[in-house]
Amino acid sequence: MTGNESHSGVVDAILQRYEDLSDAEKAVADFILTHKGTVSSLSAVEIARLSGISNTTVSRFVRSLGYASFADMRYALAREETASKERSFDDSRGIGLADVQGSLDYVLETKIEELRSTFASLSEEGVSKAVGALSSARIAMFVGVGSSLPIAQSAAIKFSQAGVNAISPSTSDGAMITASLMQPEDCLVVISNSGRSDRLRKIMNNAIDRGVSTIVITRNEESPLADRADVVLKVVSRDHLLVNDFDFSHNSINYVLESLLLLLFHSSRDANEYNLELFNRTIASEKQG
After folding, report:
1. pTM here?
2. Name one GO biological process term (predicted).
3. Is 90 exceeded by the pLDDT of residue 268?
């Protein structure tokens, strides 16, 4: 784990910022994502011509990704291409029923790359702070909206098994009310791929007004939710490489949540094994039914 931007890579930087790019910059991004196996051999002028945009747009695009020059970005792309070839990762195959086995393999490799990038983007300090906040919390509330809501509710159940007094309201209105009643010794965990949900922002504002520690798990560390968080755990999503304009996966978010859970569990194993035994005993009758 590093938490350094340089370890995120060009592809992941594009995917993180894609929604914030202009239409012209998205044309450059789409070209790079489509030709990322060979694009490092092209000049800025060639990329501009093949993307149908101006040289100025390419320069603006490079800066928006955090690179000082096109040469820096191209060098980073070349390193990614080399690493991909060393792992025999063929990202040009795509998905289709004509090759089910190849499609399954492609999805698997894409998800593995997603987890590798998420691991590289996490900092030890951030993870340690998150575990500390959760372990000492009087109440830990997990919140999400849309497809992130069931992830938050599942996390609350799992962390309860590890001895955390975890909750996850089923509606954003309920979460807003609960956040306004929380105490400084509580903890709020916000799960949001985009980091831009207005409903989650309101929930977070209520919690912050009460002095609550906040953890945000998001792919966009420059988002409004991340800006206000005490701890930001950045994840990487490669959904855009599998299907355009459809954020369907919480693969990396689950990886982060389960890593926090395991670190929390093993930090006080005896006590948490006792809590887990009590939890399993409580629901044993339901399992038998």
Report:
1. 0.76
2. carbohydrate derivative metabolic process
3. no
Return all residues near 75 (Cβ < 8 A) that are at least 6 apart.
Answer: 40
Does 82 lie in the same domain as 130? no
pLDDT greater than 90 at residue 89: no
Pairing assessment for the beta strands 231-234 and 213-218 based on DSSP bridges: parallel
* One domain, residues 63 and 201: no
Coil, strand or helix at 7 = helix
Q: Is 282 exposed, middle or buried (0-12, 13-18, 19+ CB in 10 A)?
A: exposed
Would you tell me how many other CB atoms lie within 10 Å of the CB of residue 128? 12
The whole-number pLDDT of residue 275 equals 57
Domain identity same for 132 and 56? no
pLDDT of residue 235: 95
| Domain span including residue 191 | 124-288
Handedness of CA 230, 6, 46, 239 (dihedral sign): negative
* Secondary structure (3-state) at 188: strand
Report d(CA 88, CA 51) in Å as an integer: 28
Residue 90, helix vs strand vs coil: coil
Instruction: Say yes or no to pLDDT of 135 above 80.
Output: yes
- Say if 11 falls within a structural domain: yes
Q: Do the beta carbons of residue 172 and residue 203 sit within 8 Å? A: yes
Angle between helix 269-282 and helix 149-161 axes, rounded to 10 deg: 110
Q: What is the mean pLDDT of residues 143-171?
A: 94
Beta bridge partners of 214: 188
Q: Within a 13 Å sphere around the CA of 33, how many CA atoms are in the beta-carbon half?
A: 22
Answer yes or no: are the C-beta atoms of 216 and 233 closer than 8 Å: yes
Tell me 182's DSSP state: -
- 133 found inside a domain: yes
Domain tally for the chain? Answer: 2
Please give the Cα distance from 250 to 235 (Å, whole number).
9
Q: How far apart are the first and last CA of the chain?
A: 44
Dist CA 272 CA 109 (whole Å)? 34
